[in-house]
Amino acid sequence: MPIHTLPARLAIGMVARNAARIIDPETYSVHDLQSWHTISQGKKLVEGLSIRSETLSLAPLEVIVLTCYSGVGDQTVTFSRLNLYRRDRNTCQYCGDRPGTRELTIDHILPRSRGGKLSWENCVLACVSCNKRKANRTPEEAQMDLLSEPSQPDWRMIRRIPPRPIWSSWEKFISDAYWRQELID
User: Fold this and answer.
1) Which CATH number fits domain 76-154: 3.20.20.70, 1.10.30.50, 3.90.76.10, 3.40.50.720?
2) What is the domain partition of the chain in residue ranges?
3) pTM to 2 decimals?
């Protein structure tokens, strides 16, 4: 199961600490740094890329496998503008329009001027016209209904992986259909 993407420098560090092994995407064989160095000598390098140290010359690492896995870890989602747009699917939570990110604003259900907090449960996306119409009122006072009850999303670590593979070898481990399928809680 894919868990995360990370820079090559960190992946090499994990392999050096015996926390991970390198997978050859062509043969599926598993390697440590020394055996990957040996294999790298015969590999056709992608665009001449190699990772060098004083003693090793490695072909780029594309896929590693952990030697020990104790679960996904912290699954809380950071409250950020990007994640709020993801949660609300770039949709105004009052009228249902999808005008584009430039025409969407963050609306506080209970306005900040009235004690509303910046939180998953108090913030939704609203188009500019709905946000102006609601103004400094609650949705009930403005007689506007929310399309869905706002809450903190429960996304899995897989959501942190880029939406499309960068390396074609990744497709051997994760199919294209997997990437395109909408994730619904």
Assistant:
1) 1.10.30.50
2) 8-73+157-180, 76-154
3) 0.51
Please report the DSSP string for 4-69 in residue order: ----HHHHHHHHHTTSEEEE-TTT--EE-HHHHHHHHHHS--GGG--EE-SS-EEPPP-EEEES--
**More confident of the two residues 174 and 23:** 23
How is residue 146 written in tokens?
Answer: 């929310």
What tokens appear for 114 in the block? 């009235």
45 vs 87, residue with greater confidence: 87
158-171 mean pLDDT: 54
- Which neighbouring-strand residues pair with 106? 125
- The residue whose two tokens read 């009122």 is 137
- The torsion defined by the Cα of 81, 86, 175 and 24, in degrees rounded to 10, comes to 20
Distance in angstroms (rounded) separating the CA atoms of residues 1 and 174: 8
